[in-house]
Amino acid sequence: MRPILFVFVLLLSSFTAFSQLVKVLDFGEIYSTYDWSAESKAELRADLGDVLAEKVITLSNEAWPKGIADLAARAQNRARMDDYIIFYLTTVKEHIAILFVPAIENRGMPEDMRPKGDIYFLIGLRAVDMEADAEESDAGDASGFQSAEGFAAQLDQIVQDYPNDFINLIGELLEEDGART
Question: Cα–Cα distance between 135 and 25 in angstroms, integer?
Answer without folding.
Answer: 16
